[in-house]
Amino acid sequence: MIDTNTTGHGKWSSRFTYILAATGSAVGLGNIWKFPYITGENGGGAFVLVYLACVLVIGIPIMMAETMLGRRSQRNPIEAMELLTKEASADSHWHYLGWMGVIAGLLILSYYSVIAGWASAYVLKAFTGSFIDADATAIKSLFDSFVGSPIQLIFWHTLFMLATMVIVVRGINNGLEKAVQYLMPALFVLMFLLVAYAMTTDSYFKGLHFLFSPDFSKLTGNSVLTAMGHAFFTLSLGMGAIMVYGSYLSKDISISKTVYLIAGADTVVALLAGIAIFPIVFENNLHPSSGPGLIFETLPIAFGAMTGGWLMGVLFFIMLAVAALTSSISLIEPAVAWLVENRGFTREKACLWSGGATWFLGLGTVFSFNVWSDFKLFDRTLFQLLDYLTANLMLPIGGFCIAVFAGWIMNAKHSEEELAMQTPAGFQVWKLLVSYVAPAAVFLVFLHVIGVL
Question: Residue 154, Cα to own-chain centre: how many angstroms?
């Protein structure tokens, strides 16, 4: 039995604040930036249905497993896997799963902070009227000029990292909890304001039709694999965030019920983003399949042309920056928790070292868009290499290993005790999904991203 009387390990003050924090970790640039454009690229409604199915049968079981591992150990991810491996009398190499999650989180944050800095900068650009009456050429020139300036990117990257560190340094109750109590309601308010605006456009129902009317002729095998991959990544799985948040969860709170709520809220945000964005895209005769540039190079054209677009542009990019911030604090927290609990650092010193190292690593991403744009490793810029290494390799491997450990290595009585589901049948369904379905699906995604499928 694991000794859960840990020193210095915080606790969420309530189930509600945990739900807000974990939802904040899941809700980020992937929901508002990535989900709309991959939906546009993959034909709309049919892709959405596959995505929802994948959240249900892959995302939720693995999220329950990762939360369970964190709460069972009541430790940071690195120490959690060391203790759980010993408890299960398993091969000692399993403890590297904790290290991989923490490292993946910091690597992701290093470039995530740079992209989040773009969103922050675009709040100011929208506020100063940079998009008003601007055509596609002008908006592209604005974006190219911005990312081509290392000084500007470093400034906004630094500002965003400082905001993240200021929140995390204050700890669980005074930092993370206080932040999400304000940021998450603000995010939903901003989202509903944008949806309300979309409802006033003539293309509102055209946007809904595209998003929710399935045309399976537009669905390809690649679309299915993309949906599986996004369902997995959007819930912040495999990067230590959910495990460390789970470790702060009291034993009397139901893991299954909270995970259903978190996954539901995360999915709702993604769908609301689509409901808000696609009517605006169609109203301005833009293309839903514009790809990654949909947010920074396509939507500003619409904001510049539409009535009330100045305000909508400001609100949209504030929402994007807020969503990024709620995720960034969860990406750095596992490393901070390990330094505090295992190396005797003060929380201030742990934040300074973790944040400083992450900021420095982020300079590689900054320079990837300008002075080092021609420098390639394995035919990728430093930003592309980091993105590929984490999103396409580390996270799928992490998620696969979490599912295998929870389904095959961990004692079934211990997992049943932690999950405390209302019926034995509910536990058996989870066991089936996490032991067989989820690992097989994640393995297929992994084969796809490395080019085998």
Answer: 22
Bridge partner list, 380? 377
Residue pair 341/76 in contact by the 8 Å Cβ criterion: yes
Rounded distance, CA 19 to CA 363, Å? Answer: 33
What are the pLDDT digits (tens) for 428-443? 999 999 999 999 988 8
What's this model's pTM, rounded to 2 decimal places? 0.90
90: amino acid identity, one letter = A
What ranges do the domains of the chain cover?
15-449
Q: Which residues are paired to 377 by β-bridges?
A: 380
Q: To 10 degrees, the CA torsion angle through 60, 64, 65, 67? A: 130
Tokens 């910091």 map to which residue? 106
Return the residue matching tokens 């996270």. Answer: 395
* CATH (residue range 15-449): 1.20.1740
Separation of CA 369 from chain center = 23
Query: How far apart (Å, rounded) are the C-alpha atoms in residues 418 and 44?
Result: 38
For residue 447, what are its two tokens?
């084969």
Tokens representing 89 are: 């009398």
Distance CA 61, CA 378 (A): 35
The one-letter code for the residue type at 25 is S
- Coil/strand/helix, residue 374: coil
C-alpha 324/C-alpha 320 separation (Å) is 6
